[in-house]
Amino acid sequence: MTKHTSISDRPDVPELTIPEGITPFFFPSARGRLIRLGALANTLLERHQYPYAISKLGGEALALVAGLAAALKFEGSFSLQVKGEGAVSLLVVDCTHNGELRFYARFDEEKVAQLPKEASALELFEKGLFALTVDQHNDKDTYQGMVKITGNSLSEMASHYFESSEQLSSWIRLYCEHTSDGWEASGLILEKIANDPSIIVKNEEEIANEAEEWNTLTILAETMTSKEMLDQTIDNNQLLYRLFNSTSISIGTAKPVSYGCRCSRSRLENLLKTFSKDDIDTMNKDGNITMTCEFCRYDFIFKPTEI
What we know:
One of its GO terms (molecular function) is protein folding chaperone. One of its GO terms (biological process) is protein refolding. Pfam families: HSP33. The protein is built from 10 helices and 13 strands. It has helices spanning about 40-50, 50-70, 110-115, 120-125, 155-165, 205-220, 225-230, 235-245, 265-270, 275-285, and strands at about 15-25, 30-35, 75-85, 90-95, 100-105, 130-135, 140-150, 170-180, 180-190, 250, 255-260, 290, 300. The strands form 2 sheets. Strands 1, 2, 3, 4, 5, 6, 7, 8, 9, 10 and 11 form an 11-stranded mixed beta sheet that branches. A two-stranded antiparallel sheet has the order 12-13. A hairpin with a 3-residue loop joins strand 3 (about 75-85) and strand 4. Helix 1 crosses helix 2 (about 50-70). It is elongated. The chain starts with 16 loop residues before the first strand and ends in a 5-residue tail after the last strand.
């Protein structure tokens, strides 16, 4: 863990950007996003040193949120919060509109140790709530949707959310494995484009054509393997054309993802100033007050005299 000894406001964390982390693609009645985090997945996951199952879950969640945030049309952030009642009590992943990712998990080490090494999301959470939040910065409206956890994997839980909360047909697969090069995380998201209420009702033939296209796309997407998704020798465009070459796919401009945490020394200092003197004395350990950012695992060290 990196210790903070200077007076810099921002923590000394890795500066890593994957230029083509998210590749959007389109069809006449559907759209999708291919997420491949590359070296960023290992950098984010290794920072926490979580048990294998938690890291795997975290990698899948990072891919999911990065893909969803890429669709934001404004400055803000997209976040996932899963509150469980099992070994994992909380999973939080956050991504800004420009692809800055961060995450952390809260869990019971003893309970995790009793589960299989590659425990499923359902085994880790058992039950609880799955919530997605869109936060428009600059004090604008915040939207949150929440549903009960349903499904065995995080992919199934996310699909259930969109079907029940957003009434949106979607197909989601998330992949995360520890390879010889470290952690790799990827995702593939398909969404059926919702009908525009301003357009005249479609005829039966148009509806049938859209249904057929959606069925074809999901069948093709099912053929994708984890090995292909995590193989960094295959570029994004090549992978998409290999998968959807028989369709009228159009590939958009790729978007970057990067290591991002919005913690700062000044923000924590202002928080500490709201505590009473007795609380500050209690937090004082050998002349130092240490506050750790759960997202980047960075220790900010303060002297009581600063507060």
